Amino acid sequence: MPLLTNDTWREYLASSLEDACESQRCLLLAFVFMPEHVHLLVYPTTEAPGVDRLLAAIKRPCSVAVKRDLIAAGSRLLDQLTVRERPGKTSFRFWQEGPGYDRNLQTENAVMGSIEYIHGNPVRRALCREPSEWAWSSARFYLSDGQVVDKRWPRVCFPPRELFLP
Fold first, then answer.
1. Binning pLDDT at 50, 70 and 90, where does residue 21 land?
2. Of 102, 123, 131, 162, which is least surrounded by CB within 10 A?
3. Alpha carbons within 13 A on the beta-carbon side of 139
4. What average pLDDT does the segment 98-126 reach?
């Protein structure tokens, strides 16, 4: 469902993402928030990264904030996003179940290609003409050599040079 269509909810996601990267010791290298999905490129700075913990730390606070808004507004969307897990047990489900899709990138070409792919998502979907036009993307950060940073965004970093050492 296209649930990431208002800036308030995208700001919840950005805040959760920044907090999660900090708590899980990851650097956010690139992101794009699309109406119904998210692309992230993160670089773990620990020996034993936990993608599952990172995703939980991103999703849970965002979901709780959205649910709070829906309850306060008396929104019918709350019912649509409440699923029956088993008899007598329901759960609010803002995020799709499952771990998502993740992979390890091993080369500079793979990392830079992934960043380009992430930033190109809104263009491929005809949501804008240039990646830098999409407000909820790190594309402007890269285009401006790190000078453009929207205060609503999570903190973005350039890929560390050690990532590309043999």
1. very high
2. 162
3. 22
4. 90
Q: Which residues pair with 42 in a beta bridge?
A: 28
> Residue 111 is encoded by which pair of tokens?
């990392």
Contact 90, 83 (CB under 8 A): yes
Tokens of 33: 């928030």
**Rounded Cα–Cα distance for residues 72 and 146 (Å):** 38
Q: What is d(CA 161, CA 55) in angstroms, rounded to the nearest whole number?
A: 25
CA distance 102 to 104: 7
Q: Measured between alpha carbons, how far is 143 from 13 in angstroms, rounded to an integer?
A: 23
Tokens of 118: 């992430």
The answer for residues whose C-beta is within 8 angstroms of residue 11's C-beta and 6 or more apart is 152
What would the pLDDT profile of 31-67 be if each residue is shown by its tens digit? 999 999 999 999 999 887 788 899 999 999 999 999 9
3-state per-residue secondary structure call for 14-39 = HHHHHHHHHHCCEEEEEEEECCCCEE
Radius of gyration over every alpha carbon of the chain, rounded to an integer in angstroms: 17
* Helix, coil or strand: residue 90: strand
Return the CATH class of domain 7-60+103-160.
Answer: alpha beta
Give phi and psi for 141, each to the nearest 5.
-60, -45
